[in-house]
């Protein structure tokens, strides 16, 4: 690996010089999610097959004690991400490396034995991209928690893949900086997971998704080779953009072990406003008016009536009494107040009531948007993450309401409306004896995704493709592009051991 420039000489920089280890992720239940096709009641065989035993033995010969887990209960903990999909048989082992060298050793063993590997961060993903390979290896990056350096003069940080997103943001704040991507899972998702899925968040309409904040990566390839891609400079156009290729690759090309991220200045001011309306259509029209205003808000978040009711039930608030839909708006920077003044006029002119929030009240509303919803008992729920051009947002809202009525399912929506990214929940009451959501819920989910594509949108805005979105992948990309993407994977992973059942699987 190329030598790193010296770390900064500030007090925090000196504390980090030896590589400060931050906390390991602990993932809570993701609010509002229910496994889509749960396999939780499927019994795994009590005894591992002989091949699994050989894999475990090889790993334990090369890796430190405690870094290899093969107990069935431990394997079950790492079998899936938050989507809840489990394999029909257990993996051979979970590997928990603490260093890049240990990641390399694990991959060399996997390559030699032709054993499939799935890379896992905090397991907070929602697309089924982290499903343990039967008889294979789950390689968890949760112990790679060093914050290697922060360089304020270059506005960058170098962190290991297991660093929790919010911890990086808080460490950067000590230098008057921040990590701009702001996923709702920031307090438990990891940087490596964000890179794998190209995660989005509340501030993406101004600062972009993860891709826009990644400068360089250290990646362990399928054969154990360590490779550095990218630059420590803001500009860098040498050769093909392999950083952009790895970001969003969902663990199919290599194991990201270290990430160099771009930091941004903490805004000198932030303004917050909420707007309530009598319908989703009215709020959608307000979003279009905001877009036409050419003001650049840092957040434009939409919550429908079912989401407001969920927050009320979970947190004791009364948001649903104020309207059937809500917008949460923020502006930041030196022009925050002037920009919000203009947005207040624009939104009010669209017939939506507005209220400016300050201090703890503003912070509280942002926190409610981030994590205030709860999940309903005895309810099946499928969540879809689609995005459409902002000019088609109102049409997408009308389409999803029509789909709910057509299939007799409840439709809920929380959206990063500023960039056209909608998180649509389709739910139905569980009936006695049901092992998975009824056909109507699946049909409604399919209709939602197809509606987004018909409006010029995409099947996923920030959650990735994984196993759950794979059925629609070819419809969006086309056959030739999908073939080319599989060819790219084969160039990096000729044995096909990395995430073999990923979105690039051929079956």
Protein model, in words:
There is one protein chain. The chain is an alpha+beta fold and 507 residues long. The chain has 4 domains: 11-23 and 145-265, Uridine Diphospho-n-acetylenolpyruvylglucosamine Reductase, domain 3, CATH 3.30.465; 50-140, Uridine Diphospho-n-acetylenolpyruvylglucosamine Reductase, domain 2 (2-Layer Sandwich), CATH 3.30.43; 270-371, Alpha-Beta Plaits; 379-476, Alpha-Beta Plaits (2-Layer Sandwich). Helices cover 33% and strands 20% of the residues. The protein is built from 16 helices and 19 strands. It has a 7-stranded antiparallel β-sheet with strand order 16-13-15-14-18-19-17. A 6-stranded antiparallel β-sheet has the order 1-6-7-11-9-10. A hairpin with a 4-residue loop joins β6 and β7. The longest helix is centred in the C-terminal third of the chain and has 16 residues, at 439-454. The chain is globular, with a radius of gyration of 23 Å. It starts with 10 loop residues before the first helix and ends in a 15-residue tail after the last helix.
Topology of helices and strands:
Elements: H1 11-16, E1 20-21, H2 50-62, E2 68-69, H3 72-77, E3 93-95, H4 100-113, E4 117-120, E5 137-140, E6 146-151, E7 156-160, H5 165-173, E8 177-178, H6 191-197, H7 204-207, E9 214-220, E10 226-230, H8 242-246, E11 255-262, E12 264-265, E13 270-277, H9 280-293, E14 299-304, H10 305-315, E15 325-332, H11 336-349, E16 353-357, H12 359-371, E17 379-387, H13 393-407, E18 410-416, E19 421-429, H14 439-454, H15 473-477, H16 479-492
Parallel strand pairs: 3-5, 4-5
Antiparallel strand pairs: 1-6, 2-3, 6-7, 7-11, 8-12, 9-10, 9-11, 13-15, 13-16, 14-15, 14-18, 17-19, 18-19
């Amino acid at each position: 690996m190329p030598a790193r420039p010296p770390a900064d000489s500030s007090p925090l920089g000196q504390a980090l010089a030896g590589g400060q280890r931050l906390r390991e992720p602990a993932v809570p239940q993701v609010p509002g999610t229910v496994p889509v096709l749960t396999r939780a009641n499927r019994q795994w065989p009590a005894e591992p097959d002989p091949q699994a035993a050989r894999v475990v033995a090889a790993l334990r010969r090369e890796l430190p004690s405690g870094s290899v887990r093969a107990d069935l209960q431990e394997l079950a903990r790492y079998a899936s991400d938050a989507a809840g999909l489990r394999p029909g048989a257990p993996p051979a082992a979970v590997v928990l490396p603490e260093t890049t060298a240990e990641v390399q050793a694990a991959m060399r063993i996997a390559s030699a034995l032709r054993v499939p590997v799935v890379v896992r961060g905090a397991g907070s993903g929602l697309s089924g991209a982290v499903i343990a390979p039967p008889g294979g290896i789950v390689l968890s990056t949760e112990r790679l928690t060093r914050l290697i350096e922060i360089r304020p003069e270059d506005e960058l940080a170098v962190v290991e893949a297991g660093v929790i997103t919010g911890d990086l943001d808080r460490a950067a704040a000590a230098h008057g900086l921040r990590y701009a991507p702001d996923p709702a899972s920031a307090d438990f998702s990891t940087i490596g997971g964000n890179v794998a899925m190209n995660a989005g968040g509340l501030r993406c309409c101004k600062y972009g998704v993860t891709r826009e904040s990644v400068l360089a990566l250290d990646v362990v390839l399928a054969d154990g080779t360590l490779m550095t891609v990218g630059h420590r400079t803001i500009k860098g156009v040498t050769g093909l953009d392999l950083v952009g290729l790895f970001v969003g690759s969902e663990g199919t090309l290599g194991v990201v072990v270290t990430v160099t991220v771009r930091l941004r200045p903490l805004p000198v001011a932030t303004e917050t406003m909420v707007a309530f309306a009598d319908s989703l259509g009215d709020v959608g029209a307000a979003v279009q008016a905001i877009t036409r205003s050419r003001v650049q808000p840092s957040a434009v978040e939409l919550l429908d009536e079912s989401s407001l009711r969920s927050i009320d039930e979970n947190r004791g608030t009364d948001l649903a009494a104020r309207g059937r839909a809500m917008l949460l708006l923020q502006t930041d920077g030196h022009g925050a107040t002037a920009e919000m003044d203009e947005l207040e006029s624009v939104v009010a002119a669209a017939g939506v009531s507005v209220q400016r929030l300050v201090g703890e009240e503003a912070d509280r509303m942002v926190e409610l948007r981030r994590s205030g919803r709860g999940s309903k008992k005895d309810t099946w729920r499928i969540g879809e993450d689609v995005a459409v051009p902002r000019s088609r947002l109102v049409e997408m809202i009308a389409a999803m309401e029509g789909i709910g009525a057509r299939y007799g399912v409840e439709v809920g929506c929380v959206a990063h409306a500023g960039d056209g990214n909608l998180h649509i929940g389709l739910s139905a009451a569980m009936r006695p004896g049901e092992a998975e959501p009824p056909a109507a819920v699946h049909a409604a989910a399919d209709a939602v995704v197809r509606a987004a594509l018909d409006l010029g949108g995409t099947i996923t805005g920030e959650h990735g493709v994984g196993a759950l979105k794979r059925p629609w992948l070819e419809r969006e990309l086309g056959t030739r592009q999908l073939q080319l993407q599989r060819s790219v994977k084969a160039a990096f992973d000729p044995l096909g051991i990395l995430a073999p059942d990923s979105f690039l699987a051929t079956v």
